[in-house]
């Protein structure tokens, strides 16, 4: 017996020594490999067999919840290191579009499967559920292969942890990836536990009081999710400000204490961001057309002068500010702006506030940069009826402007060019970053900045009202967190006039005119709701004069709810069943997103 105890003791010592010799990244690589194997095994044996044989919807739903939780244990690495494969494992149940190749791929993964299981399973859907489970197995095996060749470092581990925390508060608790079952809170708890497990590996090599405090905060955050797990009533404001923000701040402190550098990647969201609401957390010139056109004070000042000067229009009478007025949130307050020569411009003038914080411009997303947008507007016969080349020639003949251009672009040339004109206008628009509303100040720690009604509205916006699954926090536009590299469009079924039954869809086919793919018919870029209190009327055609009508449209289920038949509607078509009070609370929250500091800049 004594010899056996000695052998066991030696074995424990050897395992402990081995763990200390391995770096946290080496240890975590093995742990994730085991978790992916477990996910694969559970999918193949537990879930697939249940999908084939179970006649009990509730029993199958419980097995599915188990599958989802197992995926959430590895999500922080799958989303970080293999986003394409992750898209086919847990992406939205919408077609995957390749506009360059003109291809449409059917959706795959857990969200598609969820629609076959909830609210209950029927005989007709079981065959499809089995088929999609078999597809999921193929993608999980690909995931396992990719993980074997993935290089992992301590820096990448901390970066993945930070982005996963951002993902939880923007997508996880909004119902983005559990849109039917709304199993969001238990899944978010599983994600937090995975982050906690990963960070715990660092204590073996460098014991830290701060690290232990971080892990305790993560434990408390997980417990909060498990104790308050009802989707519609979950207090997202309290969870973010009282749990996740302290975790994020502690995470930065621990990373600094351990001497682990931040990643040196080029991103719109700064890699050193502590929270998503840090001042200047986004890089407004991230989507530049080239390095030589970087943002400078001289270019911003020049662009501002051009923006308010009709010199760039064909008749010398219209400026950019004619349709983008600061006091109206850089819109013009009209359904559609007057066109040169009579009539109206095709679409409502969108706000330019935060326009730089998205990778596509115009409602149909046809412009990839603000420079291209400026060029198109200047050359449009209904808007400016000129060209950036003609504008450059006119400005070259103006001594004052010529001097300003040479000062702003001395590294590029000594004469005014079309590229300079485009970039100057784009530079001014890039300066119109508007992220200092009362809501932002509340999220930065000033709890007095929002009323109870506005906090309730935020919780509804990010939950029951389903606004946050398209208007992603913190930009509240279609730019998808936490990478903020892609901007989404939606098919919501906007009517041609205000009508609450037997309505007709507005004939503008949106993105379909640029990329004639069936899922894009009537698709439009998801705009920001920041400063929406200033930017009425709403929708691409300006059909709704006020936020009350906008809320009623969504409460009805979009176009489907007012009897517009669109088979490709991406907006959930179920009624939201919001009460009058709840709709007012959402509107109150939207009004709290108004940022007048940007409008007051000289």
From TrEMBL:
One GO term describing the cellular component: cell envelope
Coiled coil: none
A Pfam family it matches: CCP_MauG
Main location: other
Keyword annotations of the record: Heme, Iron, Metal-binding, Oxidoreductase, Peroxidase, Signal
Signal peptide extent: 1-21
Record localization: Cell envelope
Listed transmembrane segments: none
GO-annotated molecular function: cytochrome-c peroxidase activity; electron transfer activity; heme binding; metal ion binding
Residue stretches making up the Cytochrome c domain: 298-433, 452-594
InterPro entries found in the cross-reference section: Cyt_c-like_dom (IPR009056), Cyt_c-like_dom_sf (IPR036909), Cytochrome_c_Peroxidase/MauG (IPR051395), Di-haem_cyt_c_peroxidsae (IPR004852), Imelysin_sf (IPR038352)
The organism's place on the tree of life at top rank: Bacteria
PANTHER family hit by this protein: BLL6722 PROTEIN, CYTOCHROME C PEROXIDASE-RELATED
The protein's name: Cytochrome C peroxidase
Species of provenance: Chryseosolibacter histidini
């Amino acid at each position: 017996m004594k010899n056996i105890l000695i052998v066991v003791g030696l074995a424990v010592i050897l395992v402990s020594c081995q763990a200390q010799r391995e770096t946290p990244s080496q240890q975590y690589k093995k742990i994730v490999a085991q978790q992916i194997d477990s996910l694969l095994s559970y999918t193949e044996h537990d879930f697939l067999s249940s999908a084939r044989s179970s006649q009990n919807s509730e029993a199958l739903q419980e097995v599915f919840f188990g599958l989802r939780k197992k995926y959430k244990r590895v999500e922080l690495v799958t989303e970080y290191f293999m986003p394409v494969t992750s898209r086919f494992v847990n992406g939205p149940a919408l077609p995957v579009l390749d506009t360059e190749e003109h291809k449409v791929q059917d959706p795959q993964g857990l969200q598609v499967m969820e629609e076959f299981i909830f609210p209950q399973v029927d005989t007709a859907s079981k065959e499809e559920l089995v088929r999609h489970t078999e597809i999921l197995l193929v993608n999980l095996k690909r995931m396992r292969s990719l993980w074997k060749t993935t290089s992992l470092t301590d820096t990448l581990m901390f970066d993945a942890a930070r982005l996963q925390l951002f993902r939880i508060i923007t997508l996880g608790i909004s119902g983005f990836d559990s849109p039917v079952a709304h199993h969001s809170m238990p899944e978010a708890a599983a994600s937090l536990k995975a982050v906690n497990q990963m960070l715990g590996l660092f204590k073996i090599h460098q014991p830290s009081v701060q690290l232990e405090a971080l892990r305790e905060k993560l434990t408390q955050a997980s417990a909060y999710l498990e104790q308050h797990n009802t989707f519609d009533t979950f207090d997202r404001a309290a969870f973010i400000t009282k749990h996740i923000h302290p975790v994020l701040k502690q995470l930065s402190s621990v990373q600094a204490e351990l001497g682990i550098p931040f990643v040196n990647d080029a991103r719109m969201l700064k890699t050193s961001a502590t929270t998503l609401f840090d001042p200047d957390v986004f890089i407004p010139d991230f989507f530049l057309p080239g390095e030589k056109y970087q943002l400078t004070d001289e270019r911003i000042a020049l662009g501002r002068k051009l923006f308010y000067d009709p010199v760039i229009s064909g008749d010398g009478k219209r400026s950019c500010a004619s349709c983008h007025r600061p006091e109206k949130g850089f819109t013009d307050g009209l359904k559609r702006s007057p066109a040169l020569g009579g009539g109206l411009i095709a679409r409502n003038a969108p706000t330019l506030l935060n326009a730089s914080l998205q990778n596509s411009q115009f409602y149909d997303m046809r412009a990839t940069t603000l420079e291209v947008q400026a060029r198109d507007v200047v050359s449009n016969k209904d808007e400016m009826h000129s060209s950036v080349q003609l504008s450059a020639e006119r400005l070259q003949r103006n001594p004052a402007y010529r001097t300003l251009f040479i000062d702003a672009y001395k590294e590029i040339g000594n004469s005014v060019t079309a590229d300079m004109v485009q970039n100057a206008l784009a530079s001014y628009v890039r300066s119109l970053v508007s992220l200092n509303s009362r809501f932002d100040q509340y999220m930065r720690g000033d709890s007095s900045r929002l009323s109870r009604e506005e906090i309730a509205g935020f919780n509804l916006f990010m939950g029951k009202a389903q606004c946050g699954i398209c208007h992603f926090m913190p930009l509240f536009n279609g730019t998808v967190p936490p990478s903020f590299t892609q901007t989404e469009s939606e098919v919501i079924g906007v009517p041609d006039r205000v009508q609450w039954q037997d309505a007709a869809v507005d004939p503008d086919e949106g993105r379909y005119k640029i990329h004639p793919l069936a899922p894009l018919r009537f698709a439009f870029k998801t705009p920001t709701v920041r400063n929406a209190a200033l930017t009425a009327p709403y929708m691409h055609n300006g059909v709704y004069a006020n936020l009350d009508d906008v809320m009623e449209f969504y409460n009805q289920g979009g176009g489907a709810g007012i009897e517009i038949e669109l088979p490709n509607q991406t907006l959930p078509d179920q009624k939201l069943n919001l009460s009058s009070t709840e709709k007012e609370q959402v509107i109150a929250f939207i009004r709290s997103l108004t940022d007048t500091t940007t409008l007051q800049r000289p």
